[in-house]
């Protein structure tokens, strides 16, 4: 009986790769953009997000932890790129790797800068790197692939929310923090289907896909908010004795978790849409937003224009 149960459990996770061919050539190619921002600690606005320190600290915490998520995406994408046959999907994976590598680099520069503001970067880097090293990076490759697709789903939902709420980035004069997040959101939306397509082409098992989603959910909406809530304790515990702090914290929680219009609160339906068996990231069409932002941010006077260095698109290599 035990053997039967084990067998049944394993069969639940049997690969079920996509049978039909996807025409990857019909998709837009993805450029890798280099930016040079040069953050200066004392000039980073700790109330950047809608004049709210608590919500800004949430995003700073996300900035610290997501560099490890990006490293996992890079490692996993590299491993699976070698298993792919379609040369255009391989090219898209190279773009994903390139974009994530530069995200990780620039977020690390931002994270270095916020040390000056008393943010516990060293402690959180220690916790984040060990958590990923001893837990997530130890997973077998199929689970890592599913986790990568799950993480990318969250960043896609976050990116879509931010693209629909452009004004939220303009409460502050801090043009560098604005450039970091707007560039990152633009690219997360641009490559949102790559990890998912790789997962469907190479594995496609539904139960495994949902396992990766659950792990991403637990990390992004459990561990990160919990870690963010502890930052004031390490940074300026005396501030926690003031009414102003708790007023700011209450508003910050709403900005992130309110079901009405909070970043993650109002997008739970879209987050859980991932559970649909026939889900695909492009079911949520963001192409118009992408066009608008590429045009607006990168051209003269745009938020990314002063920091833009160069861009290139990886070549399609013969299979
Ligand atoms: Fe990223
Ligand atoms: Fe991404």
From TrEMBL:
A Pfam short name: Metal_hydrol
Transmembrane portions of the chain: 214-234
GO MF annotation, one: hydrolase activity
Sorted UniProt keywords: Hydrolase, Membrane, Transmembrane, Transmembrane helix
Record InterPro entries: UCP07580
Protein name stated in the entry: Metal-dependent hydrolase
Organism for this UniProt entry: Acinetobacter halotolerans
């Amino acid at each position: 009986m035990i053997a039967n149960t084990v067998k049944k459990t394993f069969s639940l996770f049997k690969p079920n790769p996509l049978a039909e061919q996807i025409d990857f050539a019909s998709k837009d190619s993805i450029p890798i953009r280099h930016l040079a921002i040069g953050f200066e600690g004392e000039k980073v606005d700790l109330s950047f997000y809608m004049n709210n320190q608590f919500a800004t600290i949430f995003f700073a915490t996300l900035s610290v932890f997501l560099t490890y998520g990006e490293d996992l995406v890079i490692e996993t994408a590299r491993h699976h790129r070698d298993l792919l046959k379609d040369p255009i999907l391989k090219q898209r994976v190279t773009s994903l790797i390139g974009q994530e590598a530069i995200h990780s680099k620039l977020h690390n520069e931002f994270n270095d800068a916020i040390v000056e503001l008393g943010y516990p970067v060293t402690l959180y880097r220690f916790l984040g790197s060990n958590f990923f090293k001893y837990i997530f990076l130890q997973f077998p490759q199929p689970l890592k692939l599913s986790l990568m697709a799950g993480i990318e789903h969250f960043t896609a939902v976050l990116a879509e929310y931010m693209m629909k709420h452009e004004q939220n980035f303009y409460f502050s004069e801090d043009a560098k923090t604005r450039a970091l997040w707007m560039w990152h959101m633009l690219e997360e939306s641009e490559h949102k289907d790559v990890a998912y397509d790789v997962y469907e082409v190479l594995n496609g098992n539904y139960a495994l896909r949902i396992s990766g989603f659950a792990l991403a959910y637990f990390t992004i909406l459990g561990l990160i908010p919990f870690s963010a809530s502890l930052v004031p304790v390490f940074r300026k515990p005396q501030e926690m004795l003031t009414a102003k702090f708790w007023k700011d914290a209450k508003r910050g929680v709403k900005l992130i978790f309110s079901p009405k219009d909070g970043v993650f609160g109002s997008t739970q339906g879209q987050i859980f849409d991932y559970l649909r068996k026939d889900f695909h990231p492009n079911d949520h069409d963001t192409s118009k937003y992408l066009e608008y932002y590429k045009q607006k941010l990168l051209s003269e006077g745009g938020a990314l224009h002063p920091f833009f260095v160069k861009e290139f698109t990886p070549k399609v290599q013969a299979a």
